[in-house]
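Message: I would value a second opinion on how I read folds in token form. Give me a protein, with the fold worked out from its sequence. Write it directly below this note and I will take it from there.
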Amino acid sequence: MIIGPIYRLTLRALLLQRRTILLGLLAAAPVLMAFVYAVASDASADHLEFYSHLVQELFVPTIGAVVALVIGVSALGDERDDGTILYLVATPQSRIGLIATKILAAWTATLVLLVPSLVVAALLILKGDTDLSSLAWPIAGLALATLAYCGAAAWLSLRTRRPIVIGVLYVLLWEGSIATFAASASKLSIAAYGRALVAERLPEAAAPVVGPAPAVVILAAVAAVTCWLGARALVRVEL
């Protein structure tokens, strides 16, 4: 078995699950909010400000995080639960290659659900003022943040039997509460680095923890480290 088929089979399995419909509805929630805003707002409203807050306070830290968490956990958790992961680890492929492929498939599925919603919301809110940069930076922030979330979720799925519970507690309790009010705690928040990229183009919803370049490096490092930890866990944990 080679990496390509594993990626395709995992992506297909992730997108063809019943829960994907629910995650798709969650991902589409900002589109509904954007539509209501577009209908109710007048010409004097600050459309860019509303769009910025929608992305930085809802899309990246909550909706994007939850969707990436559930899909990232499912990429390995489903196979661990039904025992088919034993066939996967019996292949001659490197463990880190297997984990990286699973994370990549989870990340792809996550972006398939989230990016169209982000783009449609921007078109509805900004209307004729939409330009490439107002889409590129939010998409970059969302993409890199969800990559880090997918990596962390895949690792958690191999380390605990309750990865979604732990992940949701991290997203809602730590990122949504503690890190919001404590500047030092926000440095341990994946969402904070995603917002730092969004704020490079859109009005700041909160002071960025770092600039865009360090944010890219940190989010990529989180994804790489969790991939490495996942590979180690795949060898050591009882599947």
The two ends are 20 Å apart (CA to CA). The mean pLDDT is 88. The longest helix spans residues 47-82.
